[in-house]
Amino acid sequence: MVRTLTAAPPAQTAADERLAFADAALALAGHEVTDSALRAIVEQAARHELTGDEARAAIRRHVQG
Predict the structure, then answer these.
(1) Residue 4 within any structural domain of the chain
(2) What superkingdom heads the lineage (predicted)?
(3) What is the 3-state secondary structure (H, E, C) of 26-43?
(4) Segments forming the whole domain that contains residue 60
(5) Res. 61: pLDDT tops 80
(6) Which pLDDT score, from 0 to 100, does residue 6 have?
(7) Can you give the chain as a three-state secondary structure string?
């Protein structure tokens, strides 16, 4: 069986780059997102599955309970 390597789709690569930048910025400020629900919301926003307003509302709902 021969396997070939394929590149990630451009949209996924861009989302990965946005997440890496956000992680680096948080690390410089001495922070890290460890809450899996918050991480999932941030990932959805990075993939443009949520708008910024929708992501903020979802984070607010999660944090406030």
Answers:
(1) no
(2) Bacteria
(3) HHHCCCCCCCHHHHHHHH
(4) 34-65
(5) yes
(6) 62
(7) CCCCCCCCCHHHHHHHHHHHHHHHHHHHCCCCCCCHHHHHHHHHHHCCCCCHHHHHHHHHHHHHC
